[in-house]
Amino acid sequence: MNQNLTTDRQTFATHLECSITGERYEADQLHGLSRAGRPLLVRYDLDAVRSAISRDTIEARPTDLWRWRELLPVRQTANIVSLGEIETPLVPLTKSGGPNVLVKDEGRLPTGSFKARGLVMAVAMAKELGVKKIAMPTNGNAGAALAAYATRCGIETIVFCPDDTPEINVREIAMQGARVWRVNGLIDDCGAIVGKGAAEGRWFDFSTLKEPYRIEGKKTMGLELAAQFGWKLPDAIFYPTGGGTGLIGMWKAFDELEKLGWIGSERPKMFAVQASGCAPIVRAFEAGEEHAERWEDASTVAAGIRVPKAVGDFLILRAVRESGGQALAVGDPAILKAVEAAAKQDGLLLCPEGGATLAAYHQALNTGLVDEDDKVVLFNCATGLKYPMPEAPQALDRTQPIDFDAL
Amino acid sequence: MNQNLTTDRQTFATHLECSITGERYEADQLHGLSRAGRPLLVRYDLDAVRSAISRDTIEARPTDLWRWRELLPVRQTANIVSLGEIETPLVPLTKSGGPNVLVKDEGRLPTGSFKARGLVMAVAMAKELGVKKIAMPTNGNAGAALAAYATRCGIETIVFCPDDTPEINVREIAMQGARVWRVNGLIDDCGAIVGKGAAEGRWFDFSTLKEPYRIEGKKTMGLELAAQFGWKLPDAIFYPTGGGTGLIGMWKAFDELEKLGWIGSERPKMFAVQASGCAPIVRAFEAGEEHAERWEDASTVAAGIRVPKAVGDFLILRAVRESGGQALAVGDPAILKAVEAAAKQDGLLLCPEGGATLAAYHQALNTGLVDEDDKVVLFNCATGLKYPMPEAPQALDRTQPIDFDAL
User: What are the per-10-residue average pLDDT scores of chain A (407 residues)?
Assistant: First the structure.
């Protein structure tokens, strides 16, 4: 039906590189972290891409994630495992945001979150490279996306999540065919279990940035933005930052697009948004550090960004600094207030992490980091329907006379 | 950004017609039911549309609901109220369905359900026609869509829902700025309250098919299918049928597309899917009746199709019969089994009403109403995330030695 999913197209991945040493690794092989213990980045023959296709080629294709095939690592069309990865819409947030504020509503992706982008790519590559069993630590949404895609192509999955992960996420993961375990700890405690099992050869470790292909999937957020903005980029991007894969991925996307000559050298200011109760990147940014220390006693309503230690910390910090942006922390009250404002004023139900970006935008506006004329994109990383909402207790007894004036 | 939302385009609505008497009503006026108490249908100057645009015109536009502007009733671009009404993807259901089974995943629309299609149109028309206050009875999803769009353009809304409506729906409605009341009754009991207030001039009645524009929004499901299938249509459509607006709307869409010369005269078999615990259309279909009696003591897990009495009953029955399809009832156990099969085998989480269409498909296959070679579309009308899922209680104590073999 969708030609992106059925047409054989060349991919131009040539090799992978260690993100810290530049050491080269072979393409089309199974990889975890580099020998230096850092994420691997996929590299492409961009000169060849430029000769093969143009922006018009892309625009003539159906507008989904797979239209970017030449800039993605999957070789065989048959290995694409898809649940319908649409291009997510940009929704104006006129009243609670401002006249130039757009929300990229990632809650419209399969399994209701932007985790689908990374996992659809990583699972397709796992399929291509013959992986039979995958394990992953998750705060919820990544596990759900992994479960859905892995189930769809017959790969076995085991998922570990903190024991306070919302019930809906845990059930969704199980419903979609994964074995899911609640662990009395945080996501990095879960990650330690996954790592131990992987070291024993029990499964492949799908932790954030520990396999190289999730970032290629998340990269499509940047590619899409470029196309949606007519091959320019917005002035600022506010991105809820836990592991930071998406921020790193977008920064990589912009670089590749410039090398292709499809965009110019201008870049958005990148704002890495964290919660005050778990803000390791903000602390490192402010201290001028290249790496971020683990954040102890992490706590926030925005569970998706409750990541005490990110393996790609230096890549996040580097992108934010190069862009002229900042790392910003917002408190839980501001997050909840922003979620309510967007819903009650603009009819858009954000997730708490999306609310954090709206709160951070107002903070940046108040402190002059951006101004009202700036074209701004906030990332709503998941559907607000997955998160608790306030009670609405009003009831009416229809067997009694109804006082219409009181309704 | 999206030119569909910013470009002024001509619309070709000429008038409305009573669906039972054919009596003519003026366009661009506020209407409820016809004088005969039946739904009004919007009519277009299709000859003029044919002269003005072609299939290529449509295909060159962004793929959202508003690309169909010439076949929609909204006159002024400024009255479009949008939360990003994307074209919903077709997702193959290979294992739990079959090689030719596609799910149209309507859960990707704003507020997570296909109700967004009808309500985005009805609210835009309400805005265009100066409505200030709207009331509606709902089983949940329609109320959420109404709340979101009405809030977005500043129209006041009051929503009444059965008191066993899932908590998530009630909270979503309230969160998005509507006043919501739980009523000790079913949706038609709620409808009676809305009707009474409307008769007193307190608000405008947005009940299913009681205002004429929701059907025009739902019609876009049929328009999209035609475009997605390359201007042919699938062999069969399984549609979860409560009020039936979508089924009626698709049938109208196919008729308009044929008159435009954009599709031929072939039609899918239309299967109206109901739950065994609330199957008024099935009973009327089997009895050869033109209208359906109210179903007493309605009960099903698929609350969205728990509609005891549909004001458009005769339009549903007429479309199903003309198409050579059938009205089919499936039991709650079959519905839940189908939801589980789609999730566990294909990684796609359906809503119960979507599960009902999968169960009905297998029933139709077993009884020879369709065969495996038929290209089939099942409508998943909402994201499965809005519905209860089984518990997943497994827990792991990380402070104790972990038995990896037992994971």
Answer: 92 96 95 95 98 97 97 97 98 98 98 98 98 95 97 97 92 97 93 96 94 96 98 98 96 98 98 98 98 95 91 96 98 98 98 98 98 98 94 93 93
Domain end residue (candidates: A205, A229, A250): A205
CA A366 to chain centroid, in Å, comes to 27
Considering the domain architecture, whether residues A189 and A333 belong to the same structural domain is answered as no
Whether B393 is covered by a domain: the verdict is: no
Least confident of B54-58, B208-212, B375-379: B208-212
Report the C-alpha gap between A178 and A188 in whole angstroms. Answer: 20
CA dist B98 to A3, B95, B236, B363, B374, Å?
Answer: 20, 6, 14, 13, 10
Strand order in the sheet with A204-205: A204-205, A133-137, A156-162, A179-183, B395-396
* B370 in a structural domain: yes
State which of B189, B205, B221 marks the end of a domain: B205
Are A122 and A103 in a shared domain?
Answer: no
The angle, 0 to 180 degrees and rounded to 10, between the axes of the packed helices B245-260 and B115-128 is 80
Within this chain, do residues A250 and A301 fall inside the same structural domain, yes or no? yes
B192 and B217 both lie in a single domain = no
d(CA B262, CA A106): 33
Q: What are the pLDDT digits (tens) for A261-282?
A: 999 999 999 999 999 999 999 9
Rounded CA-CA distance B62/B101 in Å is 26
- My answer on whether A159 and A223 are in the same domain is no
Contact call for B148 and A347, based on CB within 8 A: yes
Note down the domain range covering A263: 90-112+213-386
Distance of residue A89 Cα from the nearest chain B Cα, in angstroms: 5
Would you mind telling me the total number of residues written for chain B in this entry? 407
Is A51 found in the same domain as A190? no
Residue A76 is assigned to a structural domain of this protein: no
Q: Cβ contact (<8 Å) for A394 and B340?
A: no
Residue in chain A lying closest to B102 (CA): A1
Cβ neighbours, 10 Å, residue B224: 23
Q: Is the dihedral of CA A122, A123, A127, A133 positive or negative?
A: positive
Q: Is residue B172 located within the same domain as residue B308?
A: no
CATH, residue B126: 3.40.50.1100
**How far apart, in whole angstroms, are the C-alpha atoms of residue B313 and residue B330?**
19
Contact B228 A64 (CB under 8 A): no
B177 contacts in chain A (CB < 8 Å) = 343-345, 347
Rounded Cα gap, residues B231 and B243, in angstroms: 27
The answer to the question of residue A403 being in a domain is no
- Note the pLDDT tens digit of each residue in A205-237: 999 889 999 999 999 999 999 999 999 999 999
Number of domains in chain B: 3
* pLDDT on residue A129: 97
- Chain B hits for A173, CB-CB cut-off 8 Å, are 392
Q: Are residues A219 and A201 in the same domain?
A: no
* pLDDT tens profile B143-192: 999 999 999 999 999 999 999 998 999 999 999 999 999 999 988 899 99
ipTM of the complex: 0.96
Reported in sequence order, the residue ranges of A318-360 that DSSP labels E, i.e. its strands, are: 326-330
Reduced to 3 states (helix: H, G, I; strand: E, B; else coil), residue A382 is strand
